[in-house]
Design brief:
The chain has 219 residues and is mainly alpha-helical. Helices cover 44% and strands 8% of the residues.
Length: 219
C-alpha cells in the first residue's frame, strides 16, 4: 500500500504539465530520485500528449482514489478528465487520435506515413475510467462523465471500430495503435483494448441495473 501511494504521489509530482496532460517517460537519478528527463517513447514527441498515456493517468488516479480516498488523487483524475474531454483535437465520436498533438508533427517526417490514425484502446480506457469516476463525483459533473462514457461505448460497439463477427483474429475491436513512432502495432487489434472495452461494458451494465460497479472480493 505505502509503495503504491508513494509511486502515485511521485508520478503526480513529476509526470504532469500545467494543463494536466502527462509526459510518457520520466528519467530519475538513481541516487537522488530527482527527475532529470521528461520524454516519450510511444507518443509523437517529448512534449506531446500521447492519447493512451492520458488514459492510463485517468484510470490510475481514479483507481488510486478508490483505494485510498485521498482527495488529491480524485482531484487529479478530475483534471485529467477535463483535459481529455475538452481537448480541441478530440474527435466528435470521442475515439481519440493516437496523439492529441499529432497535427504538430512535420509533414516531412517520414516516421509518420499516416498520422491521422485513431487509437481505440485509448477510448476503451477512457470509457471504463469515466464510468468509475462518475461514481465519485456529484451532480452535472458525474452525469457528464457517465454520458461521455456511454457515447464512447456506443461508438465502439459499431463500425468502424467493432470488428465483423469471425474476423479480426478473434478480437472484438479494431483500429488501435501500439507505437506509431516505432512502427509497431499500427492500426491493429490489441488485447488490452478488448479488455478495457469489456470491463467498461460490465461496469455500464451494472450501473444501469443498480448493482455495485465494482464488487468486493471476498477475503
Amino acid at each position: 500500500y505505502d509503495i503504491a501511494v508513494a509511486h502515485a504521489e511521485t508520478t503526480l509530482k513529476n509526470h504532469f504539465r500545467k494543463d494536466y496532460s502527462s509526459y510518457h517517460v520520466i528519467d530519475y537519478d538513481k541516487k537522488t530520485g530527482k527527475a532529470i528527463g521528461k520524454k516519450t517513447h510511444q507518443g509523437a514527441f517529448d512534449e506531446s500528449a500521447w492519447s493512451r498515456g492520458q488514459g492510463w493517468a485517468l484510470y490510475g488516479y481514479t483507481m488510486m482514489y478508490r483505494e485510498t480516498k485521498k482527495k488529491e488523487f480524485l482531484k487529479q483524475a478530475q483534471q485529467i478528465a477535463k483535459y481529455i474531454l475538452s481537448n480541441p483535437n478530440m474527435p466528435a465520436d470521442l475515439v481519440p487520435y493516437w496523439d492529441f498533438d499529432k497535427d504538430k508533427i512535420a509533414q516531412s517526417d517520414k516516421m509518420y506515413p499516416n498520422k491521422d490514425l485513431r487509437d481505440v484502446s485509448a477510448a476503451a480506457l477512457y470509457a471504463s475510467a469515466l464510468l468509475e469516476l462518475s461514481q465519485y463525483t456529484k451532480g452535472s459533473e458525474a452525469v457528464n462523465y457517465f454520458n461521455k462514457a456511454e457515447i464512447i461505448l456506443k461508438n465502439l460497439s459499431k463500425a468502424p471500430y467493432l470488428a465483423p463477427y469471425g474476423q479480426n483474429g478473434g478480437y472484438i475491436l479494431q483500429h488501435s495503435v501500439g507505437a506509431l513512432p516505432l512502427n509497431s502495432e499500427i492500426d491493429v487489434p490489441l488485447t488490452y483494448a478488448d479488455y478495457y472495452y469489456v470491463e467498461a461494458l460490465v461496469r455500464y451494465q451494472r450501473l444501469l441495473s443498480g448493482e455495485p460497479m465494482i464488487k468486493e472480493i471476498a477475503k
